Amino acid sequence: MADLYLKALEAERKSLWAACRLKGLPKGTPERDRIAELDELLAAHKAKKTG
């Protein structure tokens, strides 16, 4: 079965990262902060899933 939570997090991160790259947003903007938060959520979810 597909992990929909994981897919949703990855899709949001990918979308935000593309917008940041397109606009050239520096670190410290709300979008970049959200990407960092998503990275932490993804790592925690993958760690919980594997062990």
Description:
With 51 residues, this protein is mainly α. It has one domain. It is built from two helices and no strands. Helix 1 runs antiparallel to helix 2. The mean pLDDT is 93.
Core attributes:
51 residues; mainly alpha; 2 helices
How would you summarize the topology of this molecule?
Elements: H1 4-23, H2 30-50
Short description:
The chain has 51 residues and is mainly alpha-helical. It is 80% helix and 0% strand.
Distance between the termini: 18 Å
The sequence of SSEs as H and E is HH
Identify the quaternary structure here.
single chain
Number of helices: 2
- Please give the number of β-strands: 0
Q: Tell me about the largest β-sheet.
A: none
Helix % is over 70%
Number of domains: 1
Task: Please give the radius of gyration in angstroms.
Answer: 12 Å
The portion of residues forming beta strands comes to under 5%
Query: Mean of the pLDDT scores?
Result: 93
Low-pLDDT runs: none
Structural category = mainly alpha
Shape: elongated
